[in-house]
Every structure is written in C-alpha cells, then in structure tokens.
Specification:
Protein name: HdeA/HdeB family protein
Keywords: Signal
Organism: Oharaeibacter diazotrophicus
Number of strands: 3
Radius of gyration: 20 Å
Strand content: 5-15%
Distance between the termini: 56 Å
Largest sheet: 3 strands, antiparallel
Strand order of the largest sheet: 1-2-3
Structural class: alpha+beta
C-alpha cells in the first residue's frame, strides 16, 4: 500500500512540474520606451493624465504615426490598434507602483513593459 501511495505522489509531482502554474503567465512581449512630450497629449492635443493613456499614446505614436523617441523599442503586440485599446484594462490587471505611475504622468521617463495575455507590468528603466 505504501509503495502505491508513493508511486501516485511521484506521478502527481512529476506531472505538476510540466504544467505551468497559470496559463496566462507566459510573457508575450517586452519593450522599453521613452514617454516623451508627444506621448503626454492625445491626437486632439489634450493633455493626458492617466498612465495607461500615456503608454497607449506612446504605442500609437510609435506604430501608427511614426512619432518616436530615440529610446523607443518595437513590440509586436501593440502594433494592433485593437490591442492598444486593451491597454487600460491590462495595466489595471497588472503591476505598476504608485511611484512609477506618478513618474509617467509628471515626467518623461523610460519605461519597460512586460506584456502578458491579460495584463502588463510596467517599471522604470
């Protein structure tokens, strides 16, 4: 009996090691970018005061309008306008400290973004 229990425990342990803890935790993409002055204003010239909106504008500027800062890197995920529209919800589901959010709104930092299926994590470079 003890041998059977040990065999089952071994099989369960071996199987669990091959399955990721959360299917959505595989990083899809990563990039760093300078959030320059142009990224802090929308296409109508209105000042943006939301970190996600500023990051979204940066990606629209990069991919759709060709407005780029020297530090801007490419990404595949936000090439799509539909994916850029998800950015607010993705940041809400992800991680960016209060200090990072304040820096995004009040300055022109270089940020690094890890993109996952349902969320993004944002840090200062």
């Amino acid at each position: 009996m003890r041998t059977a229990v040990l065999a089952v425990l071994f099989a369960v342990t071996a199987l669990s090691a091959t399955v990721p803890a959360f299917a959505g935790d595989d990083r899809l993409d990563h990039y760093c970018a300078r959030l320059g002055r142009d990224d802090h204003f929308n296409s109508n010239g209105q000042r943006l005061d939301n970190p996600a909106a500023i990051i979204r504008q940066d990606r629209a500027n990069y991919h759709a309008f060709g407005v780029r800062d020297d530090e801007d890197e490419d990404d595949v995920f936000f090439r799509s306008k539909a994916n850029r529209a998800l950015l607010e919800a993705m940041l809400r589901n992800g991680r960016a400290s209060k200090a990072v959010r304040a820096e995004i709104v009040n300055s022109t930092p270089v940020i690094c973004v890890d993109i996952y299926e349902d969320f993004v994590n944002v840090e200062l470079q």
